[in-house]
Amino acid sequence: MTKPSKATNRKEFIKTLGLGAIAITAGNMLSSCDKGEDDNNTGEHCGTTDETTAGPYYVPGTPNAVNLNFQGAAGTPMKISGTIYGGDDGETPLANVRVEAWHADDSGQYWPAGNDNYSSYNPAEVNLRGIGFTNSNGQYAFESIRPGLYPGRRRHIHWYIVAQEHEPIFTQSYWADEKGTAIEAQDGTDTNTEDCRYVEFKDDGNGGIVGEFDIYLKKS
User: Fold this and answer.
1) What is the dihedral of CA 58, 208, 134, 169, to 10 degrees?
2) May I ask the CATH class of domain 6-216?
């Protein structure tokens, strides 16, 4: 099966979102995948997205939220979007995939810094986490703020992806401009990260940043 054009998908995505949702122009959408030469690389992406630890602060039962920063924490505005792929060929956009994301605040603190069920916390204690679903073109989008550096880690976003007939996956994405730096060298978690989990964020022209992270799932 031929993979649909990402440019076409983005146009349909913007139409689908409509007023009040996240408007992301095609010029702001930048692929996070670099071509490599290992056996897991298809020539267009890195293959199935690698799984990694959920980390210590995964909170089950987090509410649905396209704007992860629903408490209005200070920080650099961030928009991140992408497409979830799977199917028999591994390259079919998947609709209605549950996409959960969470990350630290601007100072590197998690809200909450715990892993109990969401119902165990006062709602005011919870921020910078939420659940969205892909549209008919397999695309998702979140608004938030750029996370700070959590002690001992490079800058990152946590993900938990659940799709019918596919293996669920915990993974993490990283900042491309920290690749190969001293910040990355001191991070002993999730080493040997494939290129496609490094997201190249760009200025959005309004004081924020925008990036794209595509995820490839394995059939169950």
Assistant:
1) -30
2) mainly beta
pTM for the predicted model, two decimal places = 0.81
Task: Read off the tokens for 79.
Answer: 């928009």
The tokens for 207 are 């004081």
Among candidate residues 155, 185, 150, 151, the one with its CA nearest the CA of residue 173: 155
Map out the domains of the chain as residue ranges. Answer: 6-216
How high is the pLDDT of residue 39? 38
Share of residues in the chain with pLDDT > 70 (%)? 80
Q: Is the pLDDT of residue 13 over 90?
A: no
Token code pair at residue 66: 């396209």
With residue 160 as reference, give the H or E element that holds it. Answer: strand 156-162
**pLDDT number for residue 44:** 61
| 215-216 and 209-212 beta bridge pairing | unpaired
